[in-house]
Design a protein that fits this description.
By secondary structure, this protein is of the alpha/beta class. Helix content is about 45%, strand content about 15%. It has an eight-stranded parallel β-barrel, surrounded by seven helices. Helix 3 runs parallel beside helix 4 and helix 7 packs parallel to helix 8.
């Protein structure tokens, strides 16, 4: 299967109105701005997009708005992981119908029947690429590197931030590897990772792209914002974006 994309992409924030309702137009504008600043893919309704707070209708509205706002050559990837296979299948079918080019799914809780879960998601994706999401701190237990080759996926997003895991997957997994931690960009790019899907790219797209391309100075310059976002999650990232924009950026999670 052809690679979905190469280089740095963004795990997009969801923008809300002051009353807490989604703002698909503003979220699409943010996606377009970040693509103009070098992002090669957009992940919508992922962990950074506060997916756990979104209704199915809100997810579809966001996917459609972002697909319309971004160039056709930029893949829009929808987060469709869920606590049950039934839910993940439903979200995947809806995401594809709304215009997603690919989906990202975290494994079932406890790792129960991970192959069956991903086979069901792949069927619902109707030929669109599926990425497996390894983020054991949030979605335990994660996916062992040794299990990846047996899954019907085009690749994985690894947000563990673990250098040893990165070395293992680059040495022993032939599918695409996209890093999700902005702490490892210079290492990942130099070692041959396919790309990155990054929360920090919402506020530092140019430096994230440069770091993945091998710019060690750019990697160092990301440090303070990386640490703030890593420690504070989405609320901290939205505070940084608000400081850059000079206006509030509401969040549902707190």
């Amino acid at each position: 299967m052809a690679e979905l994309f190469r280089g740095a992409g963004v795990a997009l924030l969801t923008l809300f109105h002051d009353d807490g309702s989604i703002d698909p137009g503003a979220t699409g504008e943010l996606a377009r701005e970040l693509v103009d600043r070098g992002m090669r893919a957009v992940l919508v309704a992922g962990t950074t997009g506060e997916a756990a707070t979104l209704t199915n209708g809100e997810r579809c509205a966001l996917i459609g708005a972002i697909r319309r706002a971004t160039p056709a050559g930029i893949p829009v990837i929808a987060g469709t992981g869920a606590p049950s296979t039934r839910q993940a299948v439903g979200l995947t079918g809806e995401a594809v119908a709304a215009g997603a080019d690919a989906v990202l799914a975290w494994p079932p809780p406890g790792g129960l029947d991970t192959p069956g879960y991903f086979h069901a998601v792949a069927g619902a994706a109707q030929g669109h690429p599926v990425l497996a999401y390894h983020f054991p701190r949030v979605y335990p237990p994660g996916i062992p590197v040794s299990a990846l080759a047996g899954l019907p996926v085009a690749g994985q997003k690894d947000s563990s931030g673990e250098p040893e895991r990165l070395l293992d997957e680059l040495a022993h997994y032939s599918g695409a590897t996209y890093v999700g931690s902005s702490a490892l960009l210079a290492m990942a790019g130099a070692m041959g990772a396919t790309g990155a899907l990054l929360a920090l790219a919402n506020v530092e797209p140019e430096r994230c792209a440069a770091a993945f391309a091998g710019d060690a100075a750019a990697q160092r310059e990301l440090t303070e914002r990386h640490l703030a976002a890593s420690r504070g999650g989405v609320p901290a990232l939205k505070r940084i974006l608000a400081e850059d924009r000079g206006r509030p950026v509401p969040a549902r999670v707190g």
